[in-house]
Write a structure and sequence with these properties.
two-stranded antiparallel ribbon
């Protein structure tokens, strides 16, 4: 309404969001709103349409319906029933040809000897002396003999070939089994209706071969088997990608990707568990698959895959593996955990290089470990050989 004048509520299917003298706006297509609506989000989808609030709504497609206003999705008709687009009630869902049942209710297949076109309500009997397979949709399917896809005596009743079987010609002959590892729908009338099961591949109606190790196939049909992701494998005949497990030495740590075990870890079995760390003070190459790949680091000793003990003072071990620690040369010493011969330093009272140490001669001394030379005693004093301190000089 005008400023200062009387104000009238927005009528049904319109809205106005703020104060002022602007007109009410119409809701988007195929939506409606109550009287006095204050925002476009109050415009809800009409029956037979779906969508988000405040936006244009889309008609329910064939085979679905939506009974009231609002934002729910369209619902599917019951099994073996269909409905026109924009249907607004479950009763718009009518049984398909070959099926009978109430509008919006459950649908059951017409028996042998009867048929139903889409627009009929009831299954109608075949002409006298003729029969039909279950689920027939026209009188033209009525004949003296049971039609392909069904079996029974002339004149009926006919039974549809069960799943996993087929029959290509009319008559009293029995249905035939599909080839090994394939299946077919009920009432199949051709060998080509037999499709390879999940986990098997091959042409429709032909022989079906199990997917190789490292492959899988999730659906029935003629599609080829798919390969497992890198660094994983599966048993032969696998039907799901989840059958693909990481190879030994790999672990599934990032969704579907198998990651190699890092150095210092291992994984011995197939599966999706985590890589295990090597024992303390041991290491392993990247992608290790057994515990004994864990070898004691330099400066430590022990059996492969076992506990590792630090090399004691006065010894060293230069490489990883299960070798024992090596003692330093005579008159040399090293800290615990030494990993090279160069760690062996001449002891107090001895001097030399690279672990080759000789005792200090008389009248000289050396006070600590290291490669320093022996020092001479002060003038007019002397010391015994192998002296370790200047106080030995008297």
């Amino acid at each position: 309404g005008p400023n200062g004048g009387s104000c009238i509520e927005c009528v049904k299917d319109t809205y106005k969001t703020g104060g002022g003298n602007a007109n009410c706006e119409s809701c988007p297509a195929n939506t409606g709103s109550p009287v006095g609506s204050t925002t476009v989000t109050m415009c809800a989808c009409n029956a037979g349409f779906s969508g988000a609030g405040g936006e244009a709504c889309t008609a329910c497609v064939i085979g679905t319906y939506k009974a009231g206003m609002g934002f729910p999705s369209c619902e599917c008709c019951p099994a073996h029933a269909n409905s026109p687009a924009q249907s607004t009630a479950v009763t718009a869902c009518l049984c398909n040809a070959g099926y009978k049942g109430p509008a919006g209710g459950s649908c059951t297949m017409c028996e042998s000897g009867k048929f139903k076109a889409h627009d009929d309500v009831l299954c109608l009997p075949c002409p006298s002396g003729t029969t039909s397979k279950p689920g027939s949709t026209s009188s033209t399917e009525c004949s003296v003999q049971c039609p392909p896809g069904s079996a029974g005596p002339d004149g009926g009743p006919c039974a549809s070939c069960p799943a996993g079987e087929f029959k290509t010609s009319p008559g009293t002959a029995a249905c035939l089994s599909c080839p090994a590892n394939s299946n077919s729908a009920t009432g199949s009338d051709a060998l080509a209706r037999c499709t390879c099961n999940a986990g098997y591949s091959g042409q429709d109606g032909g022989s079906c071969t199990a997917c190789d190790q490292g492959d899988y196939k999730a659906v029935a049909g003629a599609a080829a088997c798919e390969s497992c992701p890198a660094d994983s494998h599966s048993p032969a005949g696998s039907i799901l990608s989840t059958a693909c497990v990481c190879n030994a030495g790999f672990s599934k740590s990032n969704g579907e990707i198998c990651m190699v075990c890092v150095a210092g870890s291992y994984r011995a079995a197939d599966g999706d568990t985590f890589c295990k760390s090597c024992p303390a003070n041991a290491g392993s190459p990247t992608g290790s698959i057994i515990l004994v790949a864990c070898t004691c680091n330099a400066g430590f000793t022990g059996l492969n895959g076992g506990s590792c003990t630090v090399c004691s003072a006065g010894s060293y071990k230069a490489a990883s593996g299960d070798a024992t620690c090596t003692s330093c040369p005579a008159n040399a010493d090293s800290p615990a955990g030494s990993s090279a011969l160069a760690a062996c330093m001449c002891s107090a009272g001895s001097s030399g290089l690279d672990g080759v140490c000789t005792k200090c001669v008389a009248d000289t001394f050396k006070a600590g470990n290291g490669n320093a030379n022996c020092e001479s005693c002060p003038a007019n004093s002397g010391s015994p050989a192998d002296s370790t301190d200047s106080t030995a000089c008297i």
